[in-house]
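okkk here we go again. third time trying to get the zinc ion bound version out, last two times i messed up the smiles copy paste (missing a bracket lol). double checked this time i swear
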Amino acid sequence: MPSIPLALRASVPTLLLLLPLTAQAPTTQPLPEDRRAGAATVDVDLCKQWLGALASQEFEGRGTGQPGFQKAADFVAAHFRDLGLEARGDGGSYFQRVPWGRTQIDADKTFVEFRDRRDGVVRIPAARLAGSASVAMSASGDVLLLCVDPPASVPEGRSTAPAIPGLDAVDAEGKVVVAYVRTGDDKSALAMARFAVLQGLQGKNAAAVLFAQSDAVPEGLRGGRGASRRSNPAAAAARRQPLDATFGGDDLQALLRAGGQSPAVLAGSVLATPLPLRGTVEVAIDEQAAPAMNVWAVLPGSDAKLRDEYVVVGSHLDHLGKRGETIFAGADDDGSGTTGVMAVARMFAKNPVKPERSVLFVCFCGEESGLIGSAFFADNCPIPLSSIVGELQMDMIGRDEEENAEGNQGEKAEDNRNSLHLVGSQKLSPALHELCLAANARAGFDLEYDEERMFGRSDHANFAQKGVPIAFFFTGLHRDYHRPSDTPDKIHYEKLLRVARYVYDIAFELATAPGRPEIDPDLWRSYRGKRGGDPAAPMRGAR
Ligand SMILES: [Zn+2]
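finally!!
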């Protein structure tokens, strides 16, 4: 049964005052005998120890491509080794390397230039361009100045921006577009307006798109980190915007002067003004390989036949890393899920009874950069995708949902001590969902289903797209989401351990059950995110 609706909850506190405190404790039942011993080998102290290391200053927020990520990957690999799990990765390691590059801007060869017909030149060096560039670029074209207003309102959670009136009629073919957004100080409106400009210019084949602002820009152009474009199609798809550059201050005034425009044009009603200038954008980058790997291990199944089928238990190892001097510890995102994978791995490894099917434990990289590591894993899967009976993803399992920057107005952590979101389990395979519900009779969570909007926001999505049944375990967003304040001291460890035990229980069922969850034909047909015709897992009724 889903958790008590908010409206009803209002009346609960008075009720609670009447009931002895113990009534709030979740009703749980012991795990079945065959798996109980393994579960008992992990306690809260171990979880605190593992998460403490993952979210430590030493691991510097585990940014993919950064030294801190390599340390975290070695830490998890050592854990798998200590448990005696099989290493089937690159060169017999626990790693599947993901092509990842760190790009440095070559400032000497990077600049923007505007040239008039009398060879008058306005040259803006890399040091006076803010933003980032992830690929080399060389483009030129006539200059087109766009002056736009931000959208009236910023739609919550929408993935598209409201269109900018008149932009669809603008011809930007081969132009160097300079977009000036009249925003003042409203940062979210600025971000949405820039998004709206890029969205509106999509398909118009502009030679380059630059942004301009009234104030001088604070810092120079940064290189990027990311899956190296050359050998990683997932990265190619992810990087639709190779250059994100802004200039301002005197450089904008110089451009207007060279283009014969007064500053009033910026406040005027004209959307697009061609300038009698030729624009050139040169970006030179050096790309170095950077540490990026999925960390995975296998507990082989005990049955000669069924061991060729796998239950996948996953999390993402990476977080936002170190940015400037700021470390984003990522205790909940996803230090908690990786602690969960380490816990489930130990439970299976220490449990005397070995399931018939194999269990694959994996901590992905590049999740924060667009689910890059899991896309690479699913596209270059070390086992047949059809052999995966289910992917169980733990991402943010260590907190109690509360009001946050993305919404959930009115949600209080103290009301969610026992709540857990089960996301995506009803999307493809009702049998997997039923199994999760049955196991919850033992785990005793208040399961919630109101965060399906998060379906596409963690690594399971790359498996679902291929037609693998998935279940995503998520305790909800909170005020520290993607902030440096997402630290170990705020983790609800008892809950984290309960989620890990719950996932262990479900994985054990999947790894020992005679049959495997099938894909529902109607659900697959109506699932828009699918990639490919037939699902990797068997479809119900498809004999
Ligand atoms: Zn996450």
